[in-house]
From TrEMBL:
It catalyses: H(+)(in) = H(+)(out); chloride(in) = chloride(out). PANTHER family: MITOCHONDRIAL DICARBOXYLATE CARRIER-RELATED. The lineage of its organism: Eukaryota, Metazoa, Chordata, Craniata, Vertebrata. GO terms for cellular component: mitochondrial inner membrane. Its main location: mitochondrion. Homotetramer. Transmembrane segments: none annotated. Keywords: Membrane, Mitochondrion, Mitochondrion inner membrane, Repeat, Transmembrane, Transmembrane helix, Transport. PROSITE patterns: SOLCAR. It is found in: Mitochondrion inner membrane. Belongs to the mitochondrial carrier (TC 2.A.29) family. This is Mitochondrial uncoupling protein 4. Solcar repeats lie at residues 8-112, 122-214, 223-314.
Length: 320
């Protein structure tokens, strides 16, 4: 379409279907490129899990706590280079559902439910509420894929410990969880998962939206790639700081062994997991895996927002 033929920028109405297509174009290469950091983050979050002592010595952590680099090298040496991408398929499934759901929900809340003021100002408190609600909706829908991703990421470690593998592949994992726990089993760990998502989106969506509009309204910067880049860098850092403790709790609850009724054998709830982690490992255990999480979140956020804004511009949609 020639520039002179482009349709004028539009607001949210009529955009939701286009937004889902926009999301799907963004994250396939991005998720694959940063996925090893996500795997390393999950492995670090499980290191030194104090609650395992309740299952007996055979279930204790067999490897010493290793930093991000040593953990990555250990996975390559002990399991193989390609194992750094174990669980990438459900991760892509997750982002299709999660990113599409959260973006559509946030924009609907911002444009239709809350609304902006006449001078286009969007109050911080509305942005915070909208971001958290968007995260809750997107993550609740994506919980089954996140559950499978976390459990598949730990399969290599189970093999090294001499434990039987749980799944033959992604679809077998979905089928097995469904057969053993029913529909409800696919939403195991959904409470800490949506708590994490609410914090991630409060950090990501809220920070990006707030910083971007602050820069546009109060500095010489215009609504361009420089503004988008600065805003996305801020959002990635804030999201990582806010979400890492909830991410540790979420990963441990999702990966814990369960009885025949689907009840966790280590933790009764996210609060119980939090208390056990702090009492048994110290407060900083809640930030295990922070470095790979931040290193993954920053480029992830940068690529996502730059691409998302560009596709909106090319589609004739008003900037975010």
């Amino acid at each position: 379409m020639a520039p002179s033929e482009q349709v004028p920028p539009v607001r949210l109405r009529g955009y939701r279907g286009r937004a889902r297509g926009t999301i799907s174009k963004i994250f396939f290469p991005k998720t694959s490129a940063t996925f090893p950091l996500d795997l390393i983050k999950t492995r670090l979050q499980m290191q030194g899990e104090a609650a395992l002592a309740r299952l007996g010595d055979s279930a204790r952590e067999s490897a010493p706590y290793r930093g991000m680099v040593r953990t990555a090298l250990g996975i390559i040496q002990e399991e193989g280079f390609l194992k750094l991408w174990q669980g990438v398929t459900p991760a892509i499934y997750r982002h299709i559902v999660y990113s599409g759901g959260r973006m559509v929900t946030y924009e609907h809340l911002r444009e239709v439910v809350f609304g902006k003021s006449e001078d286009k100002h969007y109050p911080l408190w509305k942005s915070v509420i909208g971001g958290m609600m968007a995260g809750v909706v997107g993550q609740f829908l994506a919980n089954p894929t996140d559950l499978v991703k976390v459990q598949m990421q730990m399969e290599g470690k189970r093999k090294l410990e001499g434990k039987p593998l749980r799944f033959r592949g992604v679809h077998h994992a979905f089928a097995k969880i469904l057969s053993e726990g029913g529909i409800r089993g696919l939403w195991a760990g959904w409470v800490p998962n949506i708590q994490r998502a609410a914090l991630v989106n409060m950090g990501d969506l809220t920070t990006y939206d707030t910083v971007k509009h602050y820069l546009v309204l109060n500095t010489p910067l215009e609504d361009n790639i420089m503004t988008h880049g600065l805003s996305s860098l801020c959002s990635g850092l804030v999201a990582s700081i806010l979400a890492t403790p909830a991410d540790v709790i979420k990963s441990r609850i999702m990966n814990q062994p369960r009885d025949k009724q689907g009840r966790g054998l280590l933790y009764k709830s996210s609060t119980d997991c939090l208390i056990q982690a702090v009492q048994g490992e110290g407060f900083m255990s809640l930030y295990k895996g922070f470095l790979p999480s931040w290193l993954r979140m920053t480029p992830w956020s940068l690529v996502f927002w730059l691409t998302y804004e560009k596709i909106r511009e090319m589609s004739g949609v008003s900037p975010f």
